[in-house]
């Protein structure tokens, strides 16, 4: 990635990136979600594999956050302000494992091996 692009998307250097990050943070806090909760395991097999490698407690916490967010959304409500202040929307739990899975997938492809998983239609 070029240095211009890095500086363009870095919230510390770009005002618009900082405003965007703040808006995303506000919306995630309202429902008690983290940014990594937005990844859909049905979108990519790499995401599904990364989710399978995570500890059970982390996956259970993710599922509880998603259920709470759906419940609040159906009720047209937000978390109370005191709980919103406690939320940490950008504390990631999936990025490291996802990067590892993608790196392994690229390595297998470079070596000419078959993929560990293939998408099949039900």
Automatic annotation (TrEMBL):
<comment type="function">
    <text>Component of the ubiquinol-cytochrome c oxidoreductase, a multisubunit transmembrane complex that is part of the mitochondrial electron transport chain which drives oxidative phosphorylation.</text>
</comment>
<keyword id="KW-0249">Electron transport</keyword>
<dbReference type="InterPro" id="IPR003197">
    <property type="entry name" value="QCR7"/>
</dbReference>
<protein>
    <recommendedName>
        <fullName>Cytochrome b-c1 complex subunit 7</fullName>
    </recommendedName>
</protein>
<dbReference type="InterPro" id="IPR036544">
    <property type="entry name" value="QCR7_sf"/>
</dbReference>
<keyword id="KW-0472">Membrane</keyword>
<keyword id="KW-0999">Mitochondrion inner membrane</keyword>
<comment type="similarity">
    <text>Belongs to the UQCRB/QCR7 family.</text>
</comment>
<dbReference type="Pfam" id="PF02271">
    <property type="entry name" value="UCR_14kD"/>
</dbReference>
<keyword id="KW-0496">Mitochondrion</keyword>
<keyword id="KW-0679">Respiratory chain</keyword>
<keyword id="KW-0813">Transport</keyword>
């Amino acid at each position: 990635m070029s240095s211009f692009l890095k500086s363009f998307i870095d919230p510390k250097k770009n005002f618009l990136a900082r405003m965007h990050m703040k808006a995303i943070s506000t919306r995630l806090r309202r429902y008690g979600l983290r940014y990594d909760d937005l990844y859909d395991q049905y979108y990519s097999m790499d995401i599904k594999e990364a989710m399978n490698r995570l500890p059970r407690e982390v996956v259970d916490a993710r599922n509880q956050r998603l259920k709470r967010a759906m419940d609040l959304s159906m009720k047209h409500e937000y978390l109370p302000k005191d709980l919103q202040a406690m939320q940490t929307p950008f504390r990631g739990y999936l990025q490291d494992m996802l990067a590892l899975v993608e790196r392994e997938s690229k390595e297998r492809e470079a070596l000419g091996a078959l993929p560990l998983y293939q998408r099949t239609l039900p």
